[in-house]
Description:
Number of helices: 5
Helix content: 25-40%
Strand content: 5-15%
Shape: extended
Low-confidence stretches: none
Order of helices and strands: EEHHHHH
Amino acid sequence: MPSIAAPLHIILMVPSSKLDPFKKGMEITITGTPGTHTCAVAALKSLFEHIEQPLESPLFLQDNSSPMSHSFFISQVKAGLARAGLDTSKFSGHSFCCGAASLAAAVGLNNYKIQLLGRWCSNSYKLYINNSQACLLSLSSHLHWAIPHGQLYEPPSLLLPSYLA
Length: 165
């Protein structure tokens, strides 16, 4: 049973999403990672302890106190990147998709789990995975050890049935 004193996870309700064509809302479950500085559950618990708001209230608000829109969020992220001296033309909302899919692949999640994590209904998540130079070099290195040294390699396309030769 979840505990408000020591929650193990949170469930965020997103009122609408591109994955929710009927606008019924979606629940997103986020697990806690106790003892880490990046634990979203601990951060939200702390937020709600310091800001007295009903649990059903929007988590993020725009300057006019309305729930934060996608375009407002992207504009705020771009403003922060510009203040940091970064080129904002290289950023879009898809940058988050790319980052999540790439990180999941880098830590070894298989395709099914990456797709499940990002709630992708198609294989489009594969377009977001940014393979690092180190990953590509490692894969290339494995090709050299696929056939034992000293053994002649003959590509499969050259192994024709005798009646075709």
